[in-house]
Amino acid sequence: MKIFSTIWIGCIFAVCILFFQVPHFSQQEPQLSLYYLNPLLYNPAYAGIKKVHNATLNSRFQWVGLKGAPITQFASYHGTIKNSGLGFGLVLENDLTGARITQGAFLNVAYAIRINKKYHRLSLGLNMGIHTMQTNFSALEVNTEDQADPLRVNTLLISPNAGLGIYYLAHNFYAGFSVPRLLSRSNGLLSNTQFRIFDPVFLLMGGYVFTLNEDWKLKLNSNAKLQPHTPIQFELGTSVCWLEKINAGVAYRFHESLIGFCSYRITKKIFIGYAFDMPVHGLAWKQWGSHEVSLSYEWGKGLNKRKTNTCFEF
Q1: For the domain that residue 135 is a member of, what is the CATH number?
Q2: Which of 30, 90, 190, 274 is the most exposed place for a label (fewest CB within 10 A)?
Q3: pTM attached to this predicted model
Q4: CB contact at 8 A, 252 and 237
Q5: Where are the alpha helices (H) located in the chain, listed in sequence order?
């Protein structure tokens, strides 16, 4: 399994190198630095795979101090149906970027099968729901002569969407591939195809936990985002886990930011997380970084029968 996980992370890194020379474009979808605390946001196959019920809140304040910078909240719940491989979940999204407000609600369904007696599980999942995108141009400061611009009319666009994913979970290793939004979306301004700016995102995730001794573990996390007409986004992080309670580390999102993060398990059922991002490009000295917090609550009989490494929940 160590060889398999190393190959997986290496493949993500290699794909990244091939695309580093592509010109950069602006951010299209909300991003999280604490994604590993709540994989359901990006992969529907994660729903119920750990045989517990989980409710999580995520809030991200990006580029604090920069007017119109993204502010994002997620609320999610997922669980499992007793004595079955079925999992289900719900994800709510709210994103404010400048004059644009994007909201979404998605139902998730997954089915997991046990691969072997070591609790290795393979899950397939899908989601479906709707996105609403509201553009409020009255919130923008413009020249008075631009008031008659037809593109400044406030818009509301409602669009259905769906996604799918696959997730593999072992005692100390996980890997996933997903397309959380399969359908392209328009910004609602013009019908021309060049304004269909929200294209599907292909996501690869993988991680491995090395046991150093009875108290300490070392964890590696990686993810890659591939999207048509945009450069690949790749992130690699490492952290140490102490007594299954505290996890702290750093990550690097290539050509974008350096990230510091930590999480703490308050009780067996409750854990919290915090991340701080500092850009490594031109915005580094124009804002106060990005701040992200997460709060999770787990319950169910599966907590007492846990077979996977609890560091994954950090």
Answers
A1: 2.40.160.40
A2: 190
A3: 0.81
A4: yes
A5: 2-19
